[in-house]
Write a structure and sequence with these properties.
Pfam families: Homoserine_dh (PF00742), NAD_binding_3 (PF03447)
GO molecular function: homoserine dehydrogenase activity; NADP binding
CATH architecture of the largest domain: 2-Layer Sandwich
Strand content: 15-25%
Catalytic activity: L-homoserine + NADP(+) = L-aspartate 4-semialdehyde + NADPH + H(+)
Organism: Ophiobolus disseminans
Shape: globular
Helix content: 25-40%
CATH topology of the largest domain: Dihydrodipicolinate Reductase, domain 2
EC number: 1.1.1.3
CATH superfamily of the largest domain: Dihydrodipicolinate Reductase, domain 2
Order of helices and strands: EHEEHHEHHEHHEHEHHHHHHEEEEH
Bound molecules: NADPH dihydro-nicotinamide-adenine-dinucleotide phosphate, the ligand N[C@@H](CC=O)C(=O)O, sodium ion
CATH class of the largest domain: Alpha Beta
Length: about 375
């Protein structure tokens, strides 16, 4: 029987998602090490945050990473040096980007061209410029060339199988006509708690803080409230459906950031001042209530008409979108094959563990391909 091959794992980002991923990785690694005949075993060789890193020059596996990264005094390396370090590893490498950093995203083509595979929940790589999107996929192998593999399931709907489903629809020749629903765990949680269908609900600003504390928001919650997070997800889905969307700001996106707070210099200052605007949100809620409706933050991609939009809409209380709970997303694919009854995916759309699950599942897909 051939000896199992070592696959080296490098992780950038150890926040809410990163920590959950590392815990799932250790479960996966120990499961693999106990299964007879496994073709590979996993070694964590790199872990970094924005300032610090832990790694060994001789590619020895990292142990006790949690304390290690906490107490490390080693500065992180520039991305070009990280790439050089990983390229020289004595085996295949998978880079796991658990940041929301644009520079890391911009460097994917470089890593991929060197044969390093990537799995990530970072939306910025796939919703930045169309040129970056093309560069990433022309540098990747995904079955054809010599580059690394890339998967990004958790960049839309966290661990929910949204991207894999859309790819399956497109690759099997279905025609996607419309994709619509609730694409943000934060926005879902905010409106489900601020205006539940049963009445009552908390103050909008307090729910924003709750969403942040639960790990649903982007590192800066303004990236959720300005609609850009949903716009990024729709950009990704629209591109996968065949539309050449130039950027997440190339279509109408409604922002919930009050004008007066657009100039806040930090996310913390923004959260501190947000309660001053609770009355404005209450007004929207009361207006909807008078019509017997609730407000929810939704988005849609209309493929034949090449239209994408993101913003608030009112829904009857009996509508499935109105009845969502917690951080649930609901995503409906209207296609030629599915006709009037769309294919629907629903479930938690944010949170460390459910997001890390999509990343870990992508890692398993890469491992199968590396085999
Ligand atoms: N949270 C969720 O529910 C979901 C998140 N995602 C995506 O997952 C990613 C991570 O989110 P989350 O874990 O919540 O974010 P956090 O803010 O909790 O963690 C981000 C981590 O990335 C690190 N980081 C930031 N910039 C860099 C950099 N340039 N180099 C190295 N490390 C860096 C941070 O380090 P430091 O602490 O030093 O700043 C931190 O460890 C994001 O792209 C997000 O959009 C996707 C779906 C759902
Ligand atoms: N902030 C995002 C995280 C997942 O993509 C959200 O709330 O949906
Ligand atoms: Na997903």
């Amino acid at each position: 029987m051939p000896l199992p091959r070592q696959v080296f794992i490098a992780v950038i980002g150890a926040g809410g998602v990163g920590k959950c991923f590392l815990s799932q990785l250790s479960g996966l690694a120990s499961k693999l090490s106990q299964s007879p005949g496994t073709p590979y075993y996993l070694s964590l060789i790199w872990l970094s945050t924005s300032k610090k890193a832990i790694y060994h020059a001789d590619y020895k596996s990292l142990s006790n990473w949690e304390a290690g990264i906490e107490t490390s005094t080693k500065p992180t390396l520039p991305l070009s040096e990280l790439c050089e370090y990983l390229v020289k590893a004595p085996g295949k490498v998978v880079l796991v980007d658990n940041t929301s950093n644009q520079d890391v995203a911009d460097s994917y083509p470089t890593f991929l061209k060197k044969g390093i595979s990537i799995v990530t929940p970072n939306k910025k790589a796939f919703s930045g410029s169309y040129e970056l999107w093309q560069n990433i996929f022309s540098s990747a192998s995904n079955g054809t060339g010599i580059g690394g593999y890339i998967f990004h399931e958790s960049s839309v709907g966290a661990g929910l199988p949204v991207i894999s489903t859309l790819k399956d629809l497109v690759e099997t020749g279905d025609q996607v006509q419309k994709i619509e629903g609730v694409f943000s765990g934060t926005m879902s949680f905010l409106f489900n708690s601020f205006q539940p269908t049963s009445g009552g609900g908390g103050k909008f600003s307090a729910e924003v803080t709750n969403a942040k504390n639960k790990g649903y928001t982007e590192p800066d919650a303004r990236d959720d409230l300005n609609g850009l997070d949903v716009a990024r997800k729709l950009t990704i889905l629209a591109r996968l459906a065949g539309l050449k969307v130039e950027s997440p700001t190339s279509f109408p996106v409604q922002s919930l950031i009050p004008k007066e707070l657009e100039s806040c210099s930090s996310g913390d200052e923004f959260l501190q001042r947000l309660p001053e605007f609770d009355d404005q949100m209450d007004q929207l809620k009361n207006d909807a209530e008078k019509e017997g409706k609730v407000i929810r933050f939704v988005g849609s991609v209309d493929v034949p008409n090449n239209k994408v939009k993101v913003g608030l809409e009112k829904f009857d209380k009996s509508h499935p979108i109105a009845a969502l709970k917690g951080s649930d997303n609901i995503i409906a694919f209207y296609t030629k094959r599915y006709g009037d009854n769309p294919l629907i995916i629903q479930g938690a759309g944010a949170g460390g563990d459910v997001t890390a699950m999509g990343v870990t599942a992508d890692l398993v897909k890469v491992l199968r391909l590396l085999n």
